[in-house]
Amino acid sequence: MLFAHFSDCHVGGWKEEKLKELNMQCFKKAIALVMERNVDFLLISGDLFNTALPQIDYIKECTSELKKLKDLGITVYMIAGSHDYSPSGKTMLDVLEKAGLIINVMNFYEDGTLKFTYDKTGAKITGMLGKKGGLEINDYENLNVKNLEAEDGFKIFMFHTAINEFKPQGLEEMAGADAATLPQNFHYYAGGHVHYIFQKKFGQGVLTFPGALFPNNFKEMEEWQYGGVYFVDEHAKWEYVPVKIKDVETFSISIDDLSPEQATAKILQEVKARNTKDKIITLRVHGELDGKTSDINFKEIIEHLHEAYFVLKNTNKLQSKQNKEISMKLGTVEEIEQEILKEQISEIKIKEMDKNKEDQFTQLLMQLLNKEKEDGEKVQDFEKRIISEGLKVLDVETA
User: Fold this and answer.
1) Is residue 240 a contact partner of residue 210, using CB atoms and an 8 Å limit?
2) Which of 79, 369, 373, 393 is the most buried if burial means most Cβ atoms within 10 Å?
């Protein structure tokens, strides 16, 4: 027996068209790899699409690939993920199953216990879907696992949930289920949802997270660069095979204490030192700039990278020394607002108004902006009231 496992394809997930195309190419290459290895079946542990009701173009292309597997006798077993799942019950996976292209292995008996789906190889497969916000966690706590654990033979449990004991660094706060809530005595635990590549001996078997088949955001592109497929045999011995479409070149450049001109020069110097042709570029610029961040000539930098396949830029940790940090202190909302006003009032210059009146004027404006619509008050009346009170604060007369 030989089967394949991947997850979190998120087809259609990127906003950028070129990366959407790569994502689809990656799915096609993974399917080609599965056919090349002549596996008995394929497991997809959720989030085939990035939404429960994807665009028709993505449905057509994915359907075409799944049809190739069906024609070769390779069965595809799936569960819904947090993106595939829809509380309304309307999901494209139901359509794919009705067409005979996949089998959803999350099925229950009338008493609420999970059923096994039996593959022609003798493997027994079941699983639990994922829901948005980790809402499936309560389902694990209430799951009756006795019949699952008592079943003999080669067993596979598919899931789309973080496991608390195995969360990667940086995702400690992600909602997850305890490992003890998973059914025991399984040979392979086919995970999904958490986008990292992980495998661990678990009971008598192995538990894996294959990561996203194609990186789903800047951080994943920077850190993982590409995804892959697990191939597993009847002894739960696994092999992880990367699926790479484009090379990724990563840049992380500090511009601490540099002027915008110096920062531009430093970034250009580092970019020019590497081969970026036909590669995905992740450009992370960080640090405290001695000047306005908008004065860094990113246009020139991007123009120099014109031979790259695509450039992803991240400036989330780029700051300017000119932007003063506001020192927040403990206290009520009103006390914190007063502290902010004291620190910032020197920047507010109101013509022909002394310091005390400036303080009073600013506070009155703050109070006015905090007002809310009263019960039963119409929007139009609320707007008129705010305008009227605002004119009084500004000492403006109307005809």
Assistant:
1) yes
2) 79
Q: Is 82 helix (H, G, I), strand (E, B) or coil?
A: coil
* The one catalytic residue among 83, 160, 193, 195: 83
Q: What is the CATH number of the domain that holds 30?
A: 3.60.21.10
Tokens of 110: 């009338």
Determine contact, residues 12/49, Cβ cutoff 8 Å: yes
Q: Is 325 a member of any domain?
A: no
- Is the pLDDT confidence value at 325 over 90? no
Residue ending a domain, among 259, 289, 320, is 320
How many C-beta neighbours within 10 Å does residue 252 have? 13
% of the chain surpassing 90 pLDDT: 72
Report the distance separating Cα 96 and Cα 76, nearest Å.
Answer: 10
Q: What is the DSSP string of 339-381?
A: HHHHHHGGG---TT--HHHHHHHHHHHHHHHT--PPTT--HHH
Q: What does residue 290 show for φ and ψ, rounded to 5 degrees?
A: -90, 70
* 104-129 pLDDT tens trace: 999 988 888 999 999 999 999 999 99
Query: Is 83 one of the catalytic residues?
Result: yes
185 dihedral zone (left: phi>0; alpha: psi -120 to 50; beta): left
Predicted local distance difference test score (pLDDT) of residue 261 = 97
> How much is the pTM?
0.79
Domain membership flag for residue 340: yes
Does 203 share its domain with 287?
Answer: no
d(CA 135, CA 59): 27
- How many residues does the structure list for the chain? 399
CA 278 → CA 182, 310, 311, distances in Å? 44, 8, 10
Do residues 12 and 150 share a domain? yes
CA distance 66 to 306: 36
Domain that holds residue 354: 333-393
- Domain boundary (243, 278, 302) is at 243
Asked if residue 326 belongs to a domain, the reply is: no
Phi, psi torsion values for 239, nearest 5 degrees: -135, 130
Is residue 375 located within the same domain as residue 291? no
Confidence of residue 273 (pLDDT cuts 50, 70, 90): very high
C-alpha pair distances (Å), 30 with each of 33, 60, 79, 124, 229: 5, 17, 18, 24, 7
Q: Are residues 175 and 200 in the same domain?
A: yes
Quick: pLDDT tens for 185-217: 999 999 999 999 999 999 999 999 999 999 999
Are 179 and 122 in a shared domain?
A: yes
